[in-house]
Amino acid sequence: MSLHRSSAWPLSWAAAALIVYATLHPLTGWHWPDSHVFSWVLPKQPNEVMDDVVANLLGYLPLGFILCLAHLRSGRAAPWAALRTVLICSGLSYSLELLQFTVPGRVPSLSDWVLNSLGAAWGVLAAITVHALGLVDVWHRLRERWFIPQAGHGLALLSLWPLGLLFPPPLPLGQGQLMPHVRIGLVELTKDTPFQRWLLPEDPLMLWSSVHSAVVASRWIGAVEVLTVAAGMLAPLCVACAVARPRVLRILLLTGLVCAGVGMSALSSALNFGPTHALSWVSVPTLAGLLLGAAAGASLVNRSRTTCALLGVVVLSTLIALIHLAPPDAYYAQTLQAWENGRFIRFHGLSRWFGILWPYVALTWLLGRLWGHEGAMRAAADTTL
Predict the structure, then answer these.
(1) What angle do the packed helices 152-160 and 350-384 form, to 10 degrees?
(2) Beta carbons within 8 Å of 264's beta carbon, 6+ residues apart
(3) Is the model's pTM score more than 0.85?
(4) What is residue 101's DSSP assignment?
(5) What CA–CA distance (Å, rounded) separates 233 from 177?
(6) What residues contact residue 343 under an 8 Å CB cut-off, 6+ apart?
């Protein structure tokens, strides 16, 4: 059994979370269904829209593929892995269809459940085929040579990082602006209570203004933007160098991540504002930040993985601090959210949360990596005594 942690497990969790979010969106307006409406037997809808048919069929295919690979990677036999995956995906789909009785605007459907289960089965068939051809074993051998044993979650982080750029952040590559959303959530939670005045300013219209407006409005605004973009670019490069072993692989990963950052930012602008605005996010401070972040990442090629992880902790902490200097705009966010959901990316705002939470998850993983490395070093020292 390989000692390497499979990235299929965290990717399957992410795929399942995406399905739950998309199925129950907008996650508001919950109500207990009337007894004459709720039924354990899912209703059959008279008409099926082709877009819904395709979405239901393809929506569960990645989950079935990744989850089956995760079971196979854990050493389970192919028939057992296939059966277990189909049952889990089918059970998840059935549970979500029942929950749709409690969500306004959502209609549970027997056809949706059947299509979801069929899509998961197609994903399982693809995973079994890939495994039977030996491609999974080839990947595992390459991974043992290329990456550290604890690289599973790190590789999942690198795979999910570009998705967070689909929803344009406050500054290019500037992910992690969480506190405004936490504050708004607390305001909603304490609505009509004495505690709300502790969270709201005297003028509620100032709620979305930056608490560091004096800094942002000063002559340092250009430097703040450059450093934010640089930190946003350097953060995934640190994660990549913390998991990769060969020098050539590091160079390839760094090149790919830089291209992914630029490409996804351009794709996001093109999808949200039109193809003619694909490069509207590019400015002199942005270019300077990209160059600074890429150059700093290139300097990590010959550094140890522990050094890269330590630098990643510093860079991510800096990114989180700097991105909160950028003032959020509630009206812009709501407009962009509706525009994006209605016509283009259709992730129901989940890509935005990928971008907000990614730096915190990456920071937690790097800290755990450093803590585990320190524990291993201490255990090795105790053994030699």
Answers:
(1) 160
(2) 162, 165, 166
(3) no
(4) G
(5) 16
(6) none
pLDDT per residue as tens digits for the range 50-87: 556 777 888 899 999 999 998 888 888 889 999 999 99
Contacts of 65 (CB under 8 A, 6+ apart): 123, 124, 126, 127
What tokens does 173 get? 């590559």
Token pair recorded at residue 195: 């505690």
For residue 343, give the H/E element and its range.
helix 330-343
What contacts 24+ positions apart, CB below 8 Å, involve 85-90? 85/120, 85/123, 85/124, 85/127, 86/117, 86/120, 86/121, 86/124, 89/60, 89/63, 89/64, 89/116, 89/117, 89/120, 90/116, 90/117, 90/120
CA dihedral over 128, 134, 140, 143, signed as positive or negative: negative
Residues 122 and 225: beta-carbon distance below 8 Å: no
Residue in this structure with the two tokens 């295919």, named with its chain if needed: 61
In tens, the pLDDT along 290-313 reads 999 999 999 999 999 899 999 999
